[in-house]
Amino acid sequence: MNATNVSKTILDRLADELSDLTPEARKAATYVLENPRDVGVSTVREIALAAKVKPNTVVRMARQVGFEGYEDFRAPFRDAIRSGAADFPDRARWLQDISKSGDLGGLYADMVRDVMSNIEDTFAAISTEDLKTAADAIWKARRVFTLGVGVNNSVARNFTYLASTGMTEFHAIPRSGSTPVDDLAWADDQDILIAITCKPYRSEVVEAVSIAKEQGLTIVALSDSPASPIIRMADHGFVVSVDTPQFFPSSVGIIALLETLLSFVIAVASDEIPQRVETFHKRRHQLGLYYAEDK
Q1: Which of 8, 114, 169, 202 has CB 3.0 to 4.6 Å from 143, enough for a Cys bridge?
Q2: Which residues contact 26 (CB under 8 A, 6 or more apart)?
Q3: Domains, the chain, ranges and CATH?
Q4: Residue 19 has what DSSP assignment?
Q5: What are the residue boundaries of the HTH rpiR-type domain, all occurrences included (predicted)?
Q6: Considering only CA atoms, which of 184, 187, 252, 258 is closest in space to residue 222?
């Protein structure tokens, strides 16, 4: 049972026992039932103040539903926030609460664990055959458009930059001053769109994927759920794990998957691509773009 389900179970139990609580404890319980997100980011004093009761009343309420105290009661709600079951502001407040409590070592451990598990979980659900099929489609396409907005814009541009060391028709969109749908205006069934978005899904990405599908483009989608709107429209869909204690989805799994996908594209590409990559880097050396100690 995940943290979100656990916190819901607690709320259900609290609602069932509401009539058995003292009037003051009932006030505290009512506040929790009406504002469950506050529990994971608030101290016992903050909940008491908001519910207009004393802190020890909140503690008694927690004990009434089987917990030793408020901190035990709050833990599943904090875990639900960490696993992404709350919105960005709540998760940001939770991070500050960790700092105030002096538990940054726990945050560090959570970050390291999630970075590693995101990569493991992402690749555990993806077969080499799925990657090769997508790579074949990318290599055969006339043009490859990679779409990401917000934090995923830099991810899309990084993928495009790496691809451009050996290939020429890779384009990160939206271009500066443009929109995704305008950048795809003249694309057709000879082209491919790689689209990236995670909850909360960006409307301009979903719209661009829908329009690209109508224009006949092949769609490669990277998102955080099989139910994602762009995954449902994709010819090649890859679900990535983005869990993090941070207040925004982790990019680690997305970056790792794109790097792997690019390596597959190079692997299925024609023989001149490795030579072009070598030529690209030789040129950079000749132009002095790499630092040399012996200058």
Answers
A1: 169
A2: 18
A3: 3-102 (1.10.10.10), 117-286 (3.40.50.10490)
A4: G
A5: 8-84
A6: 258
> Strands of 170-173's sheet, edge to edge?
170-173, 144-147, 192-196, 218-223, 236-239
Q: Tell which residue, 126, 269, 256, 130, has the closest CA to residue 196.
A: 256
Q: Render the burial of 175-208: b for 16+ CB within 10 Å, e for the rest.
A: eeeeebbebbeebeeebbbbbbbbeeebebbbeb
* pLDDT greater than 60 at residue 6: no
170-173 and 144-147 beta bridge pairing? parallel
DSSP state of 192: E
Question: Which token pair is 99?
Answer: 């700092």
Between CA 122 and CA 256 the distance in angstroms is: 9
pTM given for the model: 0.65
Query: In this structure, what token pair is assigned to residue 94?
Result: 């939770």
Q: Which amino acid is at 72?
A: D
d(CA 82, CA 75): 10
The percentage of residues in the chain with a pLDDT greater than 70, rounded to a whole number, is 83
C-alpha closest to that of 266 among 163, 191, 196, 172: 163
How many angstroms separate the CA atoms of 223 and 232, rounded? 10
* 173: β partners: 147
